[in-house]
């Protein structure tokens, strides 16, 4: 856990409970360290984000209530623009604009990524900014492009300046695989089965040929 993350996440209540159970040395003690400024996304975290097909985005309503939203798309729909900046396209949805409105009044957000296959998760604090399509159409076109595909009906861009990052423990994560991964594994398995069946058929034919030759020799 980075110093920056602890400084943003741990309030007096969290520190008190850490002291009570003896975990303050591992966590809360970081509060006394100098502020090193925003964290950078390490290569491991960057790779995890690029491979993610969904994440959860937390923001705060003007009334002070937390709001969390699920965001999903093909792997790569969240772009790592540099080691301290993330971006993604905001596509047409239910037209409530809760997250968009929240960010416009309070830019602080939390992103939660989870990798079910490798049982790992990343928590990211950041400051989000909404960029309308009319203000930067090239940026939106870039964020809406995922490989050779384009996300449907992109309306605006979201940019997140990373403040702090924490990689959490793998406990209580049940391994899950995306359907596309399972389909690929099924295709590979089916191909192996077909190749094995073809090889077995060739062996059966060869055995039949040898048996026929033996019968001919025995008859002569």
UniProtKB/TrEMBL annotation:
Transmembrane segments: none annotated. Residues 41-142 form the Pyridoxamine 5'-phosphate oxidase N-terminal domain. The keyword Coiled coil applies. InterPro entries: Pyridox_Oxase_N, Split_barrel_FMN-bd. Residues 179-220 form a coiled coil. Keywords: Coiled coil. The keyword Hydrolase does not apply. Pfam families: PNPOx_N. This is Pyridoxamine 5'-phosphate oxidase N-terminal domain-containing protein. It comes from Segniliparus rugosus (strain ATCC BAA-974 / DSM 45345 / CCUG 50838 / CIP 108380 / JCM 13579 / CDC 945).
């Amino acid at each position: 856990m980075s110093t920056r993350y602890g400084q943003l996440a741990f309030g007096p209540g969290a520190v008190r409970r850490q002291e009570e159970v003896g975990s303050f040395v591992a966590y809360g003690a970081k509060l006394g360290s100098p502020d090193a400024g925003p964290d950078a996304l390490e290569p491991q975290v960057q790779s995890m984000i690029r491979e993610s097909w969904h994440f959860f985005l937390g923001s705060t309503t003007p009334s002070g209530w937390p709001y969390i939203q699920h965001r999903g798309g093909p792997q790569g729909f969240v772009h790592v623009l540099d080691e301290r900046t993330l971006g993604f396209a905001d596509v047409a949805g239910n037209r409530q604009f809760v997250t968009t409105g929240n960010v416009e009044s309070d830019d602080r957000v939390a992103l939660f990524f989870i990798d079910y296959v490798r049982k790992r998760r990343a928590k990211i604090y950041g400051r989000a900014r909404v960029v309308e399509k009319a203000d930067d159409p090239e940026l939106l076109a870039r964020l809406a492009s995922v490989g050779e595909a384009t996300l449907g009906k992109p309306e605006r861009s979201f940019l997140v300046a990373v403040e702090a990052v924490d990689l959490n423990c793998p406990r209580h994560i049940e391994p899950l695989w995306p359907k596309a991964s399972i389909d690929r594994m099924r295709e590979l398995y089916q191909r192996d089965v077909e190749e094995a069946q073809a090889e077995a058929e060739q062996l059966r034919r060869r055995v039949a040929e040898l048996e026929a030759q033996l019968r001919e020799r025995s008859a002569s």
